[in-house]
Amino acid sequence: MNSVEEIKKNSFQFLHRLYKLSGCDEMVLFYTLDISKELGFCADLTKNITNYLYSKDLIELISDGYVVRITDIGIRKVLETLSNPDKPTEYFPPFNIIYDTKMINSQIQQDSPQSTQITMNKKWFKNIVLSSIPLKQMDDQGMPINSASGCIISYCNKKLLLTVQHATGNMGNWVIEIKYVPGKGTEVHQVGAMMFLKEGNLITGKWRDIDFAYAIIPDNVQPYYQEVSYLDKKIKAEIPRLINTINFNIEPDKNHKYSFHGQARVSRDDEQQYVYAQPTIELDMQYVGAEDDMYNFKLNRRHPGHEYYKGCSGAPIVDSDGNIVALVVCGDMKESIIYGISLKKYKIVIDIECGIIK
Q: Does residue 117 sit within a domain?
């Protein structure tokens, strides 16, 4: 069992390493295990460290802590500790105690990065996160009981929400999460009727559901990505989510990397005002082929289980140039594959809806 002071000491080492590797850039992501292995921390200690740093708003944990990034508050707290090396700060012991003379020449002090910086630029990161639209199914009391994802596109002077049928086809009250308003709760837009597709043969009478859904939404619907403080629920950052212009002719290939972002495992606070959603992100997937209307993407790690991705269905799969090529449908745990439905194949449906084809 690690003492509180030991946790604080190790937590600063972890945060300080993030600070140095990121170059004070909040948008740079790292694999948590890479940082902990470099510092010689075991899994249990790493969990205690990341929980402590997250509880103080010093880091953001993504995908159940699989991915980590330093926050603006984290950068400022590192600088505060470095500026007064002989004095303790609010969250950490004195710097000169954390790094005693035995550690001056240790790996922690080296400037050359040993950890894997996730291979993306700021624009790609923003496209992955900001293109994903959180969807919630609400009960009769206006509280979320289910979650999914989608994207909003602007096409032929119409604004459309694209998502998948298996997640939203239960005829429930689905809404787009717009933003959190302090003291009031989460502002939402009710989607209303969604359009679902079937494919079949009139002669044989065999039909199947197509895992694709869409709805036309008003032009004034604008969701926001927000960073809300874990401690006091104050809004630290607010950025409009992207309304994408899609090139339906782009198909995935083996020369690009692919990623998606969703919000899973919804919970709410005691005042019933703020909905917490664990962000889930998968990065650097490889396109490995297609089957009918499904593209196959190989994860860059072992599939963590279907429950892990609950709420990500419908999330846009984005290539390393920022193009949306598919929507997340499901996965294969054994093969570590994510399946995404082709947007190109169902462009004709959108063309009919928008009046291009009559």
A: no
Total number of domains in the chain: 2
Clarify whether residues 210 and 320 are in a common domain: yes
The sign one gets for the Cα dihedral 39, 43, 47, 48 is: negative
Shared-domain flag, residues 196 and 317: yes
pLDDT score recorded for residue 103: 42
pLDDT of 28 > 90? The answer is: no
CATH number at residue 103: 1.10.10
The CA-CA-CA angle for residues 278, 281, 283, to 5°, reads: 165
Q: Which pLDDT score is estimated for 171?
A: 79
The H-assigned helical ranges of the chain are 4-22, 32-39, 43-55, 72-83, 95-98, 122-131, 165-168, 347-353
Residue type at 139 in one-letter notation: D
CATH number for 139: 2.40.10.120
Give the range of the structural domain holding residue 26, as residue numbers without chain letter: 4-109
Q: Which two tokens stand for residue 323?
A: 């193009």
Instruction: Over range 307-325, report the average pLDDT.
Output: 92
Amino acid at 277: A
CB of 174 closer than 8 Å to CB of 194:
yes
Tell whether the torsion through CA atoms of 341, 347, 352 and 358 is positive or negative: negative
> Structure pTM?
0.77
Place of tokens 């992207």: 242
